[in-house]
């Protein structure tokens, strides 16, 4: 998609906001229908989404050279992204079946690609009010953090830039046993999970032909949510976690997570491209808060310590290796070193926020200046070791029934050999239209 088209989309969106905010809702006579409040055994919902993106490239960045070394895409690249996410469930007696399917159609500089993925598909049985058993593909959603979850040992990692997006689960067998009390301990629950890793089943989780076990003990103790978590098995090393969340007041919440990982193996490269390995016990943790002001401004602040991440010198060595590989390609035409660097970038180096210390801040304001259904927000992620950062202003409008419109820009700021400074683009502009059904 050309750049002028994105400009047209931008101005149509901005100019339409005042008209939309003044639109009058039609009043309809309410008629009572008993069928509207009867619980149906089935449910179908979801959304369809169109998301065009304009990327403004940083042609001097290491990751731009790695990505486009044999292509001439110019200063900008465009994307057209379409997504259909469908939820469906059917419930009868003590059984419930739930499925969530995602179909993605994307047009990038590589051409058209599509993918159909079952995010979740599981059968849930409830033999008693205190016990629920699940079998199938499921997202566990462990952890209390908003942008990161170091204790989510059997969930896929979130994208900190879009932490609310639905994630793909893993195939598991799990159960939930819950009891309520009248004292300081109000609720107790226990969740054991079996996660097998075989050829074609969870084979992207870790070593195959292995059985893995995880468990979570939940307490609502003195009005504080607390989880104790453990994971062990042959696919990944043993790890332990604890998290908490507490509402200090009705509009102020604090939360945290702590994870201890045994024998974590970190693979990295030096500036010459030699692969090195270090095995050690590591600690990751997160501390955060959420605050809603009287003016309905929401603040989310989190500090994340990633014990499995790279330190500053290790990441600088990777960038230097990429530059060396690119120089060799220009001099000889051989892309052998670039292929090795690309393979490394698709592993540990391509993880969201792969270094050690990060700060996340999101500020959103509901209906400023009495503009109905209009919510601006600003999000920043700071690498405290570089320092480099991303900053993303956005505006969202929800004044049309079942339709959400969002315009978002992300700027990446940093010098040479910094995480955000060496990413392939300087900034990106995206528009999202999402219709819920």
Can you characterise this structure?
With 437 residues, this protein is mainly β. It has 4 helices and 18 strands. The chain has an 18-stranded antiparallel barrel. The N terminus is likely disordered.
- Rg, rounded, reads 24 Å
- CATH A-level architecture: Beta Barrel
Q: Give the class-level CATH name.
A: Mainly Beta
Shape annotation: globular
List low-pLDDT spans: 1-30
Kindly identify the CATH topology: Porin
Helix and strand content put the structural class at: mainly beta
Terminal CA distance reads 28 Å
What is the number of helical segments per DSSP (H or I, 4+ residues)?
4
Beta-strand level of the residues, as a percent range?
over 45%
CATH superfamily: Porin
Number of strands: 18
Largest sheet entry: 18 strands, antiparallel, barrel
Blueprint of the fold:
Blueprint lengths: L2 H19 L20 E16 L4 H7 L7 E17 L2 E14 L2 E18 L2 E8 L31 E11 L4 E13 L12 E12 L2 E10 L5 E11 L2 E18 L5 E18 L4 E9 L6 H21 L3 H10 L11 E9 L8 E10 L4 E13 L2 E11 L11 E12 L1
Antiparallel strand pairs: 1-2, 1-18, 2-3, 3-4, 4-5, 5-6, 6-7, 7-8, 8-9, 9-10, 10-11, 11-12, 12-13, 13-14, 14-15, 15-16, 16-17, 17-18
Gist of the model:
By secondary structure, the chain is mainly beta. It contains four helices and 18 strands.
């Amino acid at each position: 998609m050309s750049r002028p088209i994105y400009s047209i989309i931008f101005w149509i969106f901005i100019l339409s906001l005042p008209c939309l905010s003044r639109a009058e809702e039609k009043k309809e006579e309410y008629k009572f229908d008993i069928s509207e409040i009867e619980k149906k055994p089935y449910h179908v919902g979801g959304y369809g989404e169109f998301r065009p993106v304009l990327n403004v490239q940083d042609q001097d960045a290491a990751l731009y050279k790695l990505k486009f070394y044999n292509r001439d895409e110019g200063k900008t690249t465009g994307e057209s992204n379409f997504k259909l996410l469908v939820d469906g469930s059917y419930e009868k007696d003590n059984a419930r079946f739930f499925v969530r399917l995602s179909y993605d159609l994307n047009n990038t500089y590589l051409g058209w690609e599509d993918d159909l993925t079952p995010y979740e598909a599981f059968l849930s049985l409830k033999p008693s009010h205190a016990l629920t058993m699940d079998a199938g593909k499921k997202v566990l959603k462990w952890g209390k953090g908003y942008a990161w979850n170091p204790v989510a040992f059997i969930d896929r990692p979130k994208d900190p830039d879009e932490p609310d997006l639905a994630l793909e689960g893993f195939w598991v067998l799990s159960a939930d046993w819950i009891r309520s009390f009248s004292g300081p301990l109000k609720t107790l629950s226990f969740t054991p999970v079996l996660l097998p890793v075989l050829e074609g089943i969870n084979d992207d989780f870790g070593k195959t032909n292995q059985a893995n076990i995880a468990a979570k003990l939940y307490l609502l103790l003195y009005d504080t949510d607390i989880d104790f978590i453990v994971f062990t098995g042959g696919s990944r090393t043993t790890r332990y976690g604890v998290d908490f969340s507490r509402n200090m007041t009705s509009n102020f919440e604090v939360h945290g997570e702590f994870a201890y990982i045994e024998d974590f193996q970190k693979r990295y490269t030096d500036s010459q491209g030699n692969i090195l390995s270090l095995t050690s016990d590591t600690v990751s943790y997160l501390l955060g808060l959420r605050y809603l002001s009287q003016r309905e401004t929401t603040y989310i602040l989190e500090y994340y310590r990633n014990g499995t991440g790279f330190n500053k010198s290790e990441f600088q060595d990777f960038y230097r290796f990429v530059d060396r590989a690119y120089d060799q390609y220009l001099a000889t035409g051989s892309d052998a070193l670039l292929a090795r660097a690309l393979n490394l970038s698709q592993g540990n180096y391509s993880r969201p926020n792969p270094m050690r210390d990060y700060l996340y801040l999101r500020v959103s304001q509901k209906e400023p200046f009495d503009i109905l259904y209009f919510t601006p927000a600003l999000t920043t992620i700071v690498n405290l070791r570089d320092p480099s950062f991303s900053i993303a202003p956005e505006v969202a409008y929800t004044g049309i029934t079942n339709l959400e419109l969002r315009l978002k820009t992300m700027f990446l700021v940093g010098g040479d050999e910094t995480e955000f400074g060496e990413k392939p683009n300087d900034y990106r502009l995206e528009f999202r239209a999402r219709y819920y059904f």
